[in-house]
């Protein structure tokens, strides 16, 4: 059941897990780049967001190389990408860390995109969703794979009002790019 978050405009929190990363020997985790599949899937994620008419007003992206590359390739699919903030707190983030970032979002932002990592992103979605359409909650509980996109909708006058169980999980998609 969704707890009442209050009045205000309809807002959307879109969560994008980074695309598939490579595991080069001797490269620190924070510096791991995207794998060939990730290089295909990240633009597909950008196209999926555009097709769903869910382009963000602001993006907050982990500082890890694989997340930054996911953001760059996804946002390159849009005419004019929104502003992006790179925030180290999204790397290895807990739900509390992610909520801190979300709560700092300016009130004029109606759609916020987080680009980061699991398990934090999946845990955040499950924490915020009081309910979900179709089997979206079950999908996230089962697996939130690389390049997965989850969209939460809620009403509130500002981002600090977003609290556990106040959002509706409206969609979960896992876009995949095609091999050439």
Would you kindly provide a written description of the structure presented here, covering whatever features stand out?
The structure is a single chain. 29% of the residues lie in helices and 22% in strands. The protein has 180 residues and is of the alpha/beta class. A seven-stranded mixed sheet has the order 3-2-4-1-6-7-5. The longest helix has 16 residues.
Q: What series of H and E elements makes up the topology? A: EHEHEHEHEHEE
> How many strands appear in the DSSP assignment?
7
Secondary-structure content class:
alpha/beta
- Report how far apart the termini are: 44 Å
The low-confidence parts are none
Helix count equals 5
Range of strand content: 15-25%
SSE inventory with pairings:
Elements: E1 10-17, H1 36-51, E2 58-61, H2 65-75, E3 84-86, H3 95-103, E4 111-116, H4 120-128, E5 129-132, H5 136-142, E6 149-155, E7 167-173
Parallel strand pairs: 1-4, 2-3, 2-4, 5-7
Antiparallel strand pairs: 1-6, 6-7
Which descriptors apply to this entry?
single chain; 180 residues; alpha/beta; 7-stranded mixed β-sheet; 5 helices; 29% helix
Quick gist of this model?
By secondary structure, the chain is of the alpha/beta class. It is built from five helices and seven strands, in the order E-H-E-H-E-H-E-H-E-H-E-E.
């Amino acid at each position: 059941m969704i707890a009442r978050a209050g009045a205000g405009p309809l807002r959307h929190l879109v969560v994008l897990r980074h695309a598939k990363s490579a595991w080069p020997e001797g490269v620190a985790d924070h510096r791991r780049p995207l794998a060939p599949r990730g290089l295909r899937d990240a633009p597909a994620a950008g196209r999926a967001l555009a097709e769903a008419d869910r382009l963000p007003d602001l993006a907050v992206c982990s500082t890890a190389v694989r997340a930054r590359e996911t953001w760059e390739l996804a946002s390159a699919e849009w005419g004019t990408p929104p502003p992006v903030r790179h925030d180290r707190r999204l790397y290895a983030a807990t739900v509390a860390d992610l909520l801190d970032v979300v709560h700092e979002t300016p009130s004029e932002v109606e759609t916020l995109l987080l680009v980061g990592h699991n398990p934090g992103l999946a845990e955040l979605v499950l924490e915020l969703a009081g309910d979900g359409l179709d089997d979206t909650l079950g999908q996230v509980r089962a697996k939130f794979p690389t390049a997965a996109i989850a969209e939460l909708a809620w009403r509130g006058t500002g981002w600090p009002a977003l609290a556990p169980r106040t959002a509706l999980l409206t969609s979960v998609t896992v876009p995949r790019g095609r091999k050439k």
